[in-house]
């Protein structure tokens, strides 16, 4: 059972920055794909950025292009998300997710591909 623990969320003003970190309890095929999703009340969970175990970003939401940077440290089993120039609409619960390589494709933002989820960390951006 892979356990994921997020940290780094908080309350910031618009234009500020945050760094989210996800620590995975193990490394291997179960965590070939790791990524960040976010969700606001009443909305679907949205895939933000996904990275495979080779360090390749395989999916990235257009809404965060140029502002969010995903990185992965396989030596520490951690996944990071640098969030810059935050906007009020970025306020959400941010979740780390992990899963194996999908059949016939590389890592995607499909929620069903991910069997392991963290508890979420809240990001609140004030204007």
What does this structure look like?
With 127 residues, this protein is mainly beta. It contains no helices and 11 strands. Strands 2, 4, 5, 6, 9, 10 and 11 form a 7-stranded mixed sheet that branches. Strands 1-3-8-7 form a 4-stranded antiparallel sheet, with no helix packed on it.
Give a nutshell description of this structure.
The chain has 127 residues and is an all-beta fold.
Distinctive features:
127 residues; mainly beta; 4-stranded antiparallel sheet; 0% helix; 48% strand; globular
Major sheet: 7 strands, mixed
Shape field: globular
Give the strand tally. Answer: 11
Derived from helix and strand composition plus strand pairing, the structural class reads: mainly beta
Strand content of the residues, in percent?
over 45%
Q: Counting H and I runs of at least 4 residues, what is the number of helices?
A: 0
Q: What is the C-alpha radius of gyration, as a whole number of Å?
A: 14 Å
Termini separation: 40 Å
Give the helix proportion (percent range). Answer: under 10%
The overall pLDDT average reads 93
Poorly predicted runs are none
């Amino acid at each position: 059972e892979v356990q994921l623990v997020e940290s780094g969320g908080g309350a910031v003003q618009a234009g500020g920055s945050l760094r989210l970190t996800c620590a995975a309890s193990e490394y291997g095929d179960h965590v070939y794909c790791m990524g960040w999703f976010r969700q606001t009340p009443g909305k679907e969970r949205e895939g933000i950025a996904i990275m495979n175990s080779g360090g390749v970003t395989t999916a990235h939401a257009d809404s965060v292009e140029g502002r969010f940077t995903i990185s992965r440290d396989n030596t520490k089993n951690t996944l990071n998300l640098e969030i810059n120039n935050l906007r009020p609409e970025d306020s959400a619960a941010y979740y780390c997710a992990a899963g194996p390589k999908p059949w016939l494709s590389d890592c995607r933002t499909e929620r069903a591909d991910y069997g392991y989820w963290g508890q979420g960390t809240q990001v609140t951006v004030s204007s």
